[in-house]
Amino acid sequence: MQIIKGKNYEDISQKAAQFILKRIHENNRLTLGLATGGTPRRTYEYLIKDYENNHTSYQTVSSFNLDEYIGLAPSDPNSYHYYMYKQLFSKIDIPKDQIFLPNGLATDLANECLSYERKIKEYGGIDLQLLGIGENGHIGFNEPGTPFNQRTHVVSLTESTIEANARFFDSIDEVPRKAITVGIATILKSKEILLLVTGKSKQAALKRLIESNEVSEDFPASALRKHENVTIIADEEALSKLE
Ligand code: F6R
């Protein structure tokens, strides 16, 4: 795992955007894997800034998001569809038919998971997967205990993730209890992985990921040790508990 140190959130966001843009310039048919949550917001703002100033085109780029809540329509401001269009897609020139997120309203969820996997394959797999990390080490919505060999599947969110995500909702009761997520096996199939980590709340997870040798389903992010092309961009605060 390669580690790139940034000063603060602003700095890691700028570095992450530069990293992604470099890959787009190297391969304009890039298939991106994208994440939501607080961490990548500023990175997306930098991508938009670049689009406005340098006109990097996304016409031939495709993108697959990691996850979506079950039961939320794309028009729901808390859905990940809504987040992605608001934070990024509506502000760059990526064609709508090259944007994919799991459908949280699918009536046949098992089939939705299978067809999402098929779609990723059809696009030649993910070239660059952007990830955040949960305080409990989750990646995507793969909570501790998720088998590493799972592909896209339905998950029940843990209490700690529900609590962490409640900040985006009016009340904790509104946080959906289930989601569709790409699996750890899907994430590990990506050709390259970029993990972004910021702030105090992620110190323990980052320390465990970098300093221990464990590869254990109790700590989902440890699966990343099995991948040979992972870059972590983390800020000083997140890294400050490392030996
Ligand atoms: C988001 C996702 C999650 C987040 C993680 C960190 O699509 O899959 O794994 O990356 O929960 O969230 P933030 O960035 O809000 O701390």
UniProtKB/TrEMBL annotation:
Q: Could you tell me what this protein does?
A: Catalyzes the reversible isomerization-deamination of glucosamine 6-phosphate (GlcN6P) to form fructose 6-phosphate (Fru6P) and ammonium ion.
State its Enzyme Commission number(s): 3.5.99.6
The gene for this chain is: nagB
The source organism is Gracilibacillus dipsosauri
Please report the name of this protein according to its UniProt entry. Answer: Glucosamine-6-phosphate deaminase
| Pfam families, per database record | Glucosamine_iso
Q: Which PANTHER family does this chain map to?
A: GLUCOSAMINE-6-PHOSPHATE ISOMERASE (PTHR11280:SF5)
Q: Which UniProt keywords apply?
A: Carbohydrate metabolism, Hydrolase
Please state the pathway this protein functions in, per its UniProt record.
Answer: Amino-sugar metabolism; N-acetylneuraminate degradation; D-fructose 6-phosphate from N-acetylneuraminate: step 5/5
First-level EC class: hydrolase
Report the catalytic activity: alpha-D-glucosamine 6-phosphate + H2O = beta-D-fructose 6-phosphate + NH4(+)
Name the CDD domains on file.
Answer: GlcN6P_deaminase (cd01399)
